[in-house]
C-alpha cells in the first residue's frame, strides 16, 4: 500500500536534521535538532504563561469576578483536547514539523499557506501586546520614561537572543519559564500564609477563602459578566500550541511531545486556577484594579514593597519570555513558507548558527509597531485590549485548523489512528465540541465594544491572504503541488476503504 508522505504534498519541505553530519550539496537548508526534553517542557510552560495571566487577569477579574476561575478551567480543558489532536497528528507522520505541515497535507496547500501566514501574524500581534506590557512594567521603576523607549529596547534584546543559536533560545526560554514557575508558586504560598495568619488589607478586609463567594456569590456579575471573562482569558492561553512548532528542533519528538502535552492540565490547575484563587482570596475581587497587575498589587497590598518590585521584575521577564517565543515562532514559519515558495527566498537562508536570520530581522521590523502605538496612545489598557483581541481571533483560527485537520485525518487515514499510541481522547465527538466552543468564543468577543472593534478589523487579514493566494496558486509549482495533493487524497481514499473493509 503506497502513500504520499511529503507534508502538504511538497518535496523539500522544511525538515530538521541532526545538527551533526554533512548536508548534501543542493539540499534545502535544515534546522538543527538542538532542543532537549527540558527545553521542550519549559517552552511549553513558557508559551502558555504570559501577559494574559500576569496583566490581563486584572481586567478579567473585574469583569467576571470569582467566576473567572471557571472561565480559565473551561478554556484550559478545551485546549488540552486541541493539543492532543495536534500531538496525534504530529506523531502520525514524523515528516510533519509543525501543524502547518499536516494542515497542508490533509486539507490542501491553501491550508498550509493560510495557517503559516496567520500564525506568523498571531505571534507578531502577541509579541506587540507583550512589548506593550513590558513598557507598563518598566514604568514601575521609571514612571517618567517615555513608554516607547523600553519597548524599543526589548525588541533589540530579543533580536540578540534569537540570532545566536537555537540552543541559546532554548536556554533563555528555560530560565525565563523557571522564573515564572517560581513566582507563581511563591504567590500561592504567600497567599496561603496571609490566609492562615488572618492578614488584613488596608481597607480592613481579612484574607479569607470566603472572599470568593461572600460578595455576590461565585457569579456576581451574572451570565454576561461570566461570558465577558472569556474575552481576555483566551489571550492568557495563546502559545499553548507552541510545543507543536518546536517539533522540527526537538530531540526524540515521539517521547518528548506527549510528555509536554500531557502536562498541560496540571500546569493550568497550578499556574492559572490556584494563582487566581489566591489573588481573590487575599484581595476581594471588587478591589482588583483592571489596569494593574494583580500579582504586583497583591504584594504591594501586603506592604511588601521590595517583594512587589521583585514580582514586577518577574512579570517583566514573563512578557519578555512570551515575546521571545513569538519571535522564535514567526521566524520558523517564514523559513517554512520560503521553502515552499510562498514567501521570499531570502527567508530560508540560515546563519552559521543554523538560525533563519533574515526571517528574524523581518519579524522584528513589525514588532516596532508597539513603540508607535505606545507613542500615539493615551491608554495602555485600551491598546492592550484591542491588540489581544486581534491575537485571540487569529489563534482561534489556527486552533480551528488543527481540529479540522484532525477530523479529515480520521476520515482519510483510519489505519494511522488505529495504530497511534497517542490518540486524542473523545476523538471525532470532541472535535465537533471544540469547533462549537470556538464559535462561542467568537460570539463572546462581540459582546463588548472594545473587543468587537478589533474583531471586525481582523477579517481584513484573511481577505488579503485570499487575494494573494489566488495569485500564487496559478504559478506552475503551486499547481503541481495541488495535483500532488489531489493524487494523495485519491490514494488515501482507496487505502482507507481497503483498511475499513478488513477491520470492520
Q: What would your notes on this structure say?
A:
It is globular, with a radius of gyration of 23 Å. The protein has one domain (35-494): Up-down Bundle (Amino acid/polyamine transporter I). The two termini are 19 Å apart. 70% of the residues lie in helices and 0% in strands. It is built from 22 helices and no strands. Mean pLDDT is 79; it is low at 1-27. By secondary structure, the chain is mainly α. It is a multi-pass membrane protein. Residues 1-30 are annotated as: Disordered. Residues 39-475 form the Amino acid permease/ SLC12A domain. Pfam families: AA_permease (PF00324). One of its GO terms (biological process) is amino acid transport.
Question: In short, what is this structure?
Answer:
By secondary structure, the protein is mainly alpha-helical. Helices cover 70% and strands 0% of the residues.
Number of helices, where a helix is a run of at least 4 consecutive DSSP H or I residues: 22
CATH architecture: Up-down Bundle
Share in β-strands: under 5%
Structurally, how many domains make up the residues? 1
Please compute the radius of gyration using only Cα atoms: 23 Å
Q: Give the mean pLDDT.
A: 79
State the separation between the terminal residues, measured CA to CA: 19 Å
Q: Helix and strand string, N-terminal first?
A: HHHHHHHHHHHHHHHHHHHHHH
Using the alpha-carbon principal axes, give the shape. globular
Number of strands: 0
The main pleated sheet reads as:
none
CATH topology (level 3) name? Amino acid/polyamine transporter I
Instruction: Give the CATH H-level superfamily.
Output: Amino acid/polyamine transporter I
Helical residue percent band = over 70%
**Low-pLDDT residue intervals, each spanning 5 or more residues:** 1-27
Amino acid at each position: 500500500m503506497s502513500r504520499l508522505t511529503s507534508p502538504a504534498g511538497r518535496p523539500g519541505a522544511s525538515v530538521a536534521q541532526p545538527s551533526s553530519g554533512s548536508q548534501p550539496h543542493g539540499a534545502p537548508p535544515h534546522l538543527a535538532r538542538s532542543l532537549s526534553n527540558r527545553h521542550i517542557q519549559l517552552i511549553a510552560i513558557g508559551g502558555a504563561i504570559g501577559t494574559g495571566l500576569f496583566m490581563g487577569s486584572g481586567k478579567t477579574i473585574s469583569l467576571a469576578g470569582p467566576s473567572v476561575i471557571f472561565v480559565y478551567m473551561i478554556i484550559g480543558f478545551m485546549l488540552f483536547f486541541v493539543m492532543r489532536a495536534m500531538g496525534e497528528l504530529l506523531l502520525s507522520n514524523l515528516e510533519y514539523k509543525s501543524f502547518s505541515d499536516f494542515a497542508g497535507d490533509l486539507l490542501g496547500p491553501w491550508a498550509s499557506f493560510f495557517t503559516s501566514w496567520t500564525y506568523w501574524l498571531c505571534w507578531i500581534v502577541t509579541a506587540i501586546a507583550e512589548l506593550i506590557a513590558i513598557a507598563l512594567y518598566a514604568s514601575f521603576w521609571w514612571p517618567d520614561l517615555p513608554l516607547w523607549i523600553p519597548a524599543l529596547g526589548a525588541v533589540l534584546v530579543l533580536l540578540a537572543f534569537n540570532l545566536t543559536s537555537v540552543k541559546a533560545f532554548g536556554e533563555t526560554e528555560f530560565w525565563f519559564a523557571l522564573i515564572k514557575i517560581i513566582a507563581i508558586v511563591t504567590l500561592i504560598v504567600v497567599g496561603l500564609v496571609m490566609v492562615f495568619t488572618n492578614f488584613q488589607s488596608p481597607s480592613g478586609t481579612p484574607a479569607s477563602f470566603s472572599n470568593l463567594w461572600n460578595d455576590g456569590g461565585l457569579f456576581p456579575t451574572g451570565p454576561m459578566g461570566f461570558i465577558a471573562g472569556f474575552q481576555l482569558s483566551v489571550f492568557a492561553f495563546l502559545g499553548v500550541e507552541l510545543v507543536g512548532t518546536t517539533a522540527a528542533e526537538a530531540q526524540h519528538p515521539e517521547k518528548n511531545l506527549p510528555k509536554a502535552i500531557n502536562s498541560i492540565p496540571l500546569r493550568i490547575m497550578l499556574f492559572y486556577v490556584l494563582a487566581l484563587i489566591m489573588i481573590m482570596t487575599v484581595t476581594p475581587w471588587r478591589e482588583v484594579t483592571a489596569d494593574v497587575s494583580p500579582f504586583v498589587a497583591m504584594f504591594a497590598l501586603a506592604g511588601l514593597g521590595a517583594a512587589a518590585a521583585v514580582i514586577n521584575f518577574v512579570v517583566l521577564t514573563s512578557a519578555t519570555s512570551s515575546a521571545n517565543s513569538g519571535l522564535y515562532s514567526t521566524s520558523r514559519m517564514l523559513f517554512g513558507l520560503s521553502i515552499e515558495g510562498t514567501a521570499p527566498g531570502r527567508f530560508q537562508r540560515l546563519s552559521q548558527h543554523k538560525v533563519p536570520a533574515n526571517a528574524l530581522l523581518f519579524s522584528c521590523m513589525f514588532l516596532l509597531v508597539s513603540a508607535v502605538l505606545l507613542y500615539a496612545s493615551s491608554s495602555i489598557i485600551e491598546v492592550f485590549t484591542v491588540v489581544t483581541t486581534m491575537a485571540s481571533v487569529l489563534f482561534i483560527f489556527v486552533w480551528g485548523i488543527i481540529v479540522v485537520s484532525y477530523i479529515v485525518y480520521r476520515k482519510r487515514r483510519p489505519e494511522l489512528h488505529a495504530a497511534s499510541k497517542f490518540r486524542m481522547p473523545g476523538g471525532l465527538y470532541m472535535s465537533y465540541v471544540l469547533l462549537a466552543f470556538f464559535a462561542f468564543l467568537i460570539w463572546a468577543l462581540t459582546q463588548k465594544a472594545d473587543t468587537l472593534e478589533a474583531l471586525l478589523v481582523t477579517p481584513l487579514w484573511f481577505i488579503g491572504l485570499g487575494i494573494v493566494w489566488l495569485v500564487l496558486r496559478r504559478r506552475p509549482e503551486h499547481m503541481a503541488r495541488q495535483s500532488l495533493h489531489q493524487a494523495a487524497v485519491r490514494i488515501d481514499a482507496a487505502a482507507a476503504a481497503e483498511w475499513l473493509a478488513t477491520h470492520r
